[in-house]
Amino acid sequence: MTAQDKKNKEQLILEVAEREFFTKGFDGARTMTIAQEAGVTHAMLHYYFRTKEQLFERIISDKFELISQMVLSVLGNAQLPLVERLKEGISSHFDLVAANPLLPRFLITEMLPHPERYRYIYEKLDDIRRLYVDLQKSIDEAAERGEIERVDVMMLFTSILSLNVFPIISAQFILQMIGEKGELDEAKFLAARKQETIEMMIKRITKY
């Protein structure tokens, strides 16, 4: 097996494991099932990842690395005007959650009740914490110049998370409950909702 073959096989295992952990949780996930769906033996699975815990840690680490990179690449881009950074940040976060709809539920059910698992993500969040400080400084300076309303970045992030996550995890429920028959288009609903959230958050901080 070539190095590329090993890399491809490892990636396939990770994709299958992510689905298994996100749908069944850590306790419900089975390494035997992961191995079978990835087309490898149980022994080979343990060759790539020695334990179930190690595989779980890799899944969490990779996801938060993705989140960290997304946040930093947009909100950390000092070349963009502040309002544009926020617009792009909201849009990128929405798209990330939409592409990973099982992630929010998984974090609530598997991470929040187990604070000992936070160690998997501490290092991934260091850059985001520094961004938080820098972004608050930029907002304060812009507010002093009269360009925007002052807002606490923690509250801003909390609002963005709330407004972006709920519509994605509940889209089908909302459409079934109040949508018109024949108009249950989830993609159209989510696109409209993303734009609504961007406009709502920008109006919160800008002066008209």
Features:
0% strand; 208 residues; 77% helix; 10 helices; Arc Repressor Mutant, subunit A; mainly alpha; Tetracycline Repressor, domain 2
Description:
The protein contains ten helices and no strands. With 208 residues, the chain is an all-alpha fold. Helix 1 packs antiparallel against helix 2 (31-38), helix 1 packs across helix 4 and helix 4 (52-75) packs antiparallel against helix 5 (82-99). The longest helix is centred in the N-terminal third of the chain and has 26 residues, at 3-28. The protein starts with a helix and ends with a helix. The model has no long low-confidence stretch (mean pLDDT 88).
Question: Per CATH, what is the topology of the largest domain?
Answer: Tetracycline Repressor, domain 2
At the first level of CATH, what is the class of the largest domain?
Answer: Mainly Alpha
Please provide the ordered H/E string of secondary-structure elements.
HHHHHHHHHH
Beta-strand share of residues: under 5%
Q: What gap, in angstroms, lies between the N and C termini? A: 63 Å
Mean pLDDT: 88
Helix content: over 70%
The number of distinct structural domains comes to 2
* Structure class: mainly alpha
Q: What is the overall shape? A: globular
Number of helices: 10
What is the β-strand count? Answer: 0
- For the record, the CATH architecture of the largest domain stands as Orthogonal Bundle
Largest sheet: none
Low-confidence stretches: none
What Rg is obtained from the alpha carbons, in whole angstroms? 20 Å
